[in-house]
Each structure stands twice: as structure tokens, then as C-alpha cells.
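Can anyone check this?
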Amino acid sequence: MLQGLCLRSAHWIDPYRRQLCWAHLRRDFQAVSERQGKSAEIGLKLVAQTKELFRLWRALRDEKLSWPEFQQAIEPVKAEVTQLLQAGKCCGYQRTESTCRNLLSLEASLWTFTRVPGVAPDNNATERPLRRAVLWRRKSFGTQSKTGSEFVERILTVVMSLRQQGRDVLRFLTTACSVAMGHTASESLIPDSS
């Protein structure tokens, strides 16, 4: 399974099996563009290339480009980004140099979406199910026990899994409670693939 992850996490996953999030990178490149001198110049060009990348991705997603056409059209973007990151490694601004070195060390993870159909250049689909948990934690200040944490982990997994499948959460939980009391047959959380 491929992972859509930001630069700051999951270094243990093979770079060819993960996709760095270009939405996060766009913000990083914007920060680079707001620095001084050569860093700003490189940052502005990286932001422009990121815009072109997303334009091409939307064209593929909206079926205005075929997969082979997309792969061909993205090649100049890939070449330019690599060239800009190389230039950024020695631009005279330490933070920009560090960012560029880190990205070049994970270069395969920048372009997984160009090699594997169905992988997006951002991790919105990965982060979307986590938003509810993050919002809940902020409002409730978390849990006070291991048991409470396990309950939250499990109930949020059930809720998000069912919502992604378009299934009724209350119906499933009602059935699960009936099963626990021995009244009915169980219902699976795993979607029916038949």
C-alpha cells in the first residue's frame, strides 16, 4: 500500500512506496520564497512549478489528459524542480539549503504519483479521516486513561470506516450492541466485496 505523507513523518517507509504531500511542500516553498536573495528566487520558481504540477494533476483527474499524456507533460516539471532543489542546496541560506537537501534525499517520494496510477500528489485523502479525531481531541482535551484512549481509538475507527463506506453508523452500533447482548447476528465492519 502506498502512503501519502508529509516530509516530517514515516521515514521508515521505502521512498518508492510513499508520496510526499505537495500541499505541504507548496507551503514550504512559499516560506522559501519569502526569504532573501537567491533563496527567494528559487522559492518563487518552486511555487510556480508546484502550481503547474497541480494544474496537470487536475487535468489528469478530470480526464482532460490520459495517463501517458500526464506522464509526458509532468517530465519538464520534474526536471525543473530537481534543478531548483540542486541550486537550493548551495543558495547561501541555511534553512533553504537544508530543505532542498532533505527533499533531494527523498526524491523518489516526490514523484510516486507520476509512477503509480491512483496516487494523489497530496495527502488530503489520508488526512481527511483524521480530522474528526483531531477536532474531538481539541474540544475534549483527550482522555484520562488507557481504557478511554482505546475506546476513542476504536469508536473513531468504526465511525470513519463506516462513513467512507457510506454505511449508517447508528444502525451498525445498534446492531453491535444487540450482538454483545446475544440478541442478533453480527455485522462486519469490513465492506462486502461480493
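Reply from J.R.: I decoded it. Residues 1-9 have pLDDT under 50 and may be disordered.
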